[in-house]
Each structure stands twice: as C-alpha cells, then as structure tokens.
Design a protein that fits this description.
Low-confidence stretches: 87-91
Distance between the termini: 32 Å
Strand content: under 5%
Number of strands: 0
Largest sheet: none
Oligomer: single chain
Length: 91
Amino acid sequence: MAPYLKLLLSQSQSVIPQTLVSGAEALVKRLEDKNKAELEALEQKLKEAEETEGETEISEALRAKASYLTKIGEKVVFLVVNTPRLFLTYM
C-alpha cells in the first residue's frame, strides 16, 4: 500500500495535519520494503515459469503480479511495463 499511501499524503497535505504526514514516513518505508520483497518473489516465480513451465503458468504468474500491484495501488506500472508480455502470453 506504499504507493497509495504516498499518493494520499502528497494530495491531502491541506487536509492531513503535518504531524501525521511526517510520522507516516516510517510507515511508508516499511511498506516499500515489504512491497519490494513481495515483488521480488513474484518476479522470481515469473522467471521460473518462463524457464521451465508452460504458457498457463506464465499467465498465472503475470496475473499474480498484476493482482499484487493493483492491491498496493501501483496499477499503472504493471500496465505500462508488462502489457506486451501479457498480450503475447495469450496469443
């Protein structure tokens, strides 16, 4: 949820007191670390699927990554970076 939280904090500075914004920096850092670890695991699963598995497993790995990116609020990144690969998976 780090991308979503950062968006909220940057968009709502007039609504959210500055003391909460400054206190949220540690939370954002923890969430970013957690997101990075999870994305690395998902990328590893995708890499393994591309090397040893079939198209179904690759598609499942891509969907899992897309689902996680959507869950944390990072929707645009997946669409821009992975749409060609996802499209080719279904061809």
